[in-house]
Amino acid sequence: MNPPAPTLRELQHAMRRSLLEGVNEEASAWIVADSLDADERLSIYHNTFAGVLRTALRLAFPAVHQLVGPDFFEGAAGLFVVQAPPRNAWLDEYGAEFPGFLERLPQAASVPYLADVARLEWQVNLVLHAPDTPPLDIGRLAALSNVAPAQLHFEPHPAVRLLRCEFPTDVIWRAVLERDDCAMAAVNLADGPVWLLVHRTQSGIEVKRLGKREWHFTAALFSGKSLFGALEDASCDDARTVLATHLARGCLADVSVVPSALAN
Amino acid sequence: MSVAVIRAQEVSSPIPVNAGIGLRFRHHQPVLDRRPTVAWFEVHTENYMGGGSAPQYLDAIRRDYPVSLHGVGLSLGGADGLDAAHLARVRGVVERVDPGLVSEHLSWSVAGGTYLADLLPLPMTEEALSVVCRHVDEVQACLRRRILLENPSTYLCFSHSTIPEWEFLAQVAQRTGCGILCDVNNIYVSACNHGWDAMTYLGALPPAAIGEIHLAGHSVRQLDHGQTLRIDDHGSRVAPEVWALYREALKRFGPVPTLIEWDTGVPPIEILIDEAALAEAALERQRHESTRAYAA
Predict the structure, then answer these.
(1) Dist. CA A65–CA B173, nearest whole Å
(2) Do A264 and A133 reside in the same domain of the chain?
(3) What is the pLDDT along chain B (296 residues), one digit of tens a residue?
(4) Which of A6, A49, A128 lies closest to B116 in CB terms?
(5) What is the ipTM of this complex?
(6) Which chain A residues have a beta carbon less than 8 Å from that of B116?
(7) How many domains does chain B have?
(8) In terms of CB atoms within 10 Å, which end of chain A has fewer, N or C?
(9) In sequence order, what are the residues at sequence separation of 6 or more whose Cβ sits closer than 8 angstroms to the Cβ of residue B159?
(10) Do B51 and A89 touch (CB under 8 A)?
(11) How far is A254 from chain B (nearest CA, A)?
(12) Looking at the domain assignment, is residue A167 inside a domain?
């Protein structure tokens, strides 16, 4: 007597185990096998699953791909996609955990800056696809010139990210993508750490190096602290200039006035 | 939402009954630079969900061309239910693009909160039919418009299936009021892979529900024992057998907006324009045939 047919959910979870874990038995039991057996039929779907996701990672991490070479990248990405598959079909969002995965990958240990390059590429990817929010209008800030700094809170533009890297990752990233062997040979890993601001401009993505104090002040400001609170956290001699630069570059999306008693 | 309400929708730029082209990223700049004569473009919904340059390119192209949205990630056949966040993203793209048509697939791709990055086959059962119909209803209610459902290409069948795929698809259209995106290449690929009769498939689809036709290339894999498996890889020109089946489809359905798709090794747009010209010629012949038949 045949076992009862699986429910749709049971069958789909069996297919999921086949695609992610290579456990085919449960799904195979319900697949018609004639000229091609069930495992081979399932392998067609597995190949598409893995291929689509490897391609998504290659597009999001082009410098990592270039650094380690296609064979290593395909192998690492192949391991990653079954360990950390995406949660939805918006694949521009897929790959946040790839830098951490590379950092823990023993075979990648000989390239100490690899995870940093991946982190930078992930921030670039986020900035590339961030929402098209209008930047803060300078007129709005001018209208708040009498408000105490302790009550002014800024919201960063979604297409701006901050990143600290142990190594001179911005230089490595550019050299790799531009295939500039001379620049790559000139990299001195001891030149790190670097404090970076990744920003989408009209012409593309800009990765700008900030001073350490400037970066910490910006990070405090972007975290929601008031202008006064950010200055307390990270004293910055030229905070006024830093703020003006962020404003001019469209790095801020909004400003709000929060009475000090309510701000935390 | 009732079918009548869904059909009452009006779009500002409907898809014309002509041959269109699947627009991919490498075509963005050439299209804006050269404004080629193309009747309409179709894009993958999931490629335009965020901000930045891709949706800006599409906005610019949309100003001059009708555009349809073709989704791959709603998992309409998923037993776990629709992902509300993904549906909201789809709605966001629909509102931004104001497309002439919106389509998705008769397949599933999400289980246990994991996106499995393929259009996976459904068992053709009453349970699956009920799930797909419920989800098509939910999507049409959310988007406030009729969608088209595309027949998949498949490489396996489930032994507990009880409904032929063509009847399943016709049933979904009848119960939900959705239209059908008839992928002629997929019919050919699945018919070859499973020993179905492609003409039976075409003959079972309700002509009034056909809102669009897809054409693409496929590859042929040689198996042991001299058998073959056809893979829907969208990586070549449309096969002669698929052109022949397309002409049969037009005889049954009349002229229908037709799309040339190419996703593997995407060529310059000129190649796609060549393929679209062949589809346009077939549409034109069918228009003459239909006019003659009407006059007689």
Answers:
(1) 45
(2) yes
(3) 444 444 445 678 899 999 999 999 999 999 999 999 999 999 999 999 999 999 999 999 999 999 999 999 999 999 999 999 999 999 999 999 999 999 999 999 999 999 999 999 999 999 999 999 999 999 999 999 999 999 999 999 999 999 999 999 999 999 999 999 999 999 999 999 999 999 999 999 999 999 999 999 999 998 877 888 999 999 999 999 999 999 999 999 999 999 999 999 999 999 999 999 999 999 999 999 888 777 76
(4) A49
(5) 0.93
(6) 15-16, 19-20, 49, 85
(7) 1
(8) N
(9) A30, A31, A32
(10) no
(11) 18
(12) yes
